[in-house]
Automatic annotation (TrEMBL):
Keyword Oxidoreductase: yes
Keywords per UniProt: Oxidoreductase
The protein's name: D-sorbitol dehydrogenase (Acceptor)
SUPFAM superfamilies hit by this protein: NAD(P)-binding Rossmann-fold domains (SSF51735)
Source organism phylogeny: Bacteria, Pseudomonadati, Pseudomonadota, Betaproteobacteria, Burkholderiales
EC number(s) given by UniProt: 1.1.99.21
Enzyme class: oxidoreductase
Keyword Oxidoreductase: yes
InterPro entries reported in the protein's UniProt record: NAD(P)-bd_dom_sf, Sc_DH/Rdtase_CS, SDR_fam
Family statement: Belongs to the short-chain dehydrogenases/reductases (SDR) family.
PROSITE patterns listed in its UniProt record: ADH_SHORT
Pfam families, A to Z: adh_short_C2
Organism: Rhodoferax ferrireducens
Length: 263
């Protein structure tokens, strides 16, 4: 039987929360009793986040931030601390996706992907870790990687490389933070049925000459379990890694992918 409200007393900072995995994780963390600072790029929260604010007015705040900018990260962390105190757990989820022929991918595409998926991920993690160490907080960090970080893909070179970097930074940070009692782990989702997949499917349709929806259907059927995952599948893993149940787990990247990657 699961332990209800496993995250009481925690202050979770979650990025990329407007929809999909980030929204599902924010919902799950609130249900588990955490105070949550949810972050996304938009100046105002999505309708779903507004509904959470109405439901959990004393436990939830929304902040607009651009994780690719150091000044924005600093302001985000300061505002989170001002509201709910020390950040005890981070879900580093903000990310972008694009694909293209490896002979044609532009420098701009590279910069967009790496500025958010790698630079943003690292410096958000660094900022949160600094305040954990300063406050003597034995907290936890979970970085969102991807099954794309476990392998190369012909049309998705930059995204794959960015998510491989997430896995590597997770391992290095975990070793660096272990003496402080801070755990750093990752989650590697497989194909998850989020709003982002509409854009991903459209990009593959254009690149591979497919009908809209064809790629999405194919990748779901190719999963050993036979279907795409749901954002809630990843959210449950995030709750577990942030909870005392995972107190002896660090430097790991957990595959939540229906069996696509075996490790």
């Amino acid at each position: 039987m699961s332990n209800p409200q496993r995250l009481i007393g925690q202050h979770a900072l979650l990025t990329g929360t407007a929809g999909g995995i980030g929204l599902a994780a924010t919902t799950a963390f609130l249900r588990e009793g955490a105070h949550c600072t949810a972050v996304d790029l938009a100046a105002t929260p999505s309708a779903e986040l507004q509904a959470l604010l109405a439901q959990y007015p004393s436990h939830f705040q929304y902040l607009s931030a651009d994780v690719s900018r150091q000044d924005s990260i600093a302001a985000m962390v300061a505002a989170a601390r001002a509201k709910f105190g020390t950040i005890t757990t981070l879900l580093n989820n903000a990310a972008v996706f694009s694909l293209g022929d490896i002979l044609e991918i532009t420098e701009k595409q590279y910069e967009v992907i790496f500025n958010v998926n790698v630079k943003g991920m690292f410096f958000v993690m660094q900022a949160v870790l600094k305040q954990m160490v300063a406050d003597g907080c034995k907290g936890s960090v979970t970085n969102l990687a991807s099954q794309a970080g476990r392998r190369g893909e012909a049309l998705v070179a930059h995204y794959c490389a960015s998510k491989a970097a997430v896995i590597s930074y997770t391992q290095s940070a975990a070793l660096a933070m272990a003496p402080h009692g801070i755990r750093v782990n990752g989650i590697s989702p497989g194909v998850i049925d989020t709003p982002m997949w509409k854009d991903v499917d459209a990009q593959f349709a254009k690149a591979e000459g497919l009908q809209i929806g064809e790629k999405k259907k194919a990748v779901g059927l190719a999963v050993p379990l036979g279907y795409m995952g749901a954002p809630e599948d990843v959210a449950r893993a995030a709750v577990f890694l942030a909870s005392p149940e995972a107190s002896y787990i660090t430097a790991q990247t957990l595959n939540v992918d229906g069996g696509n990657v075996m490790s």
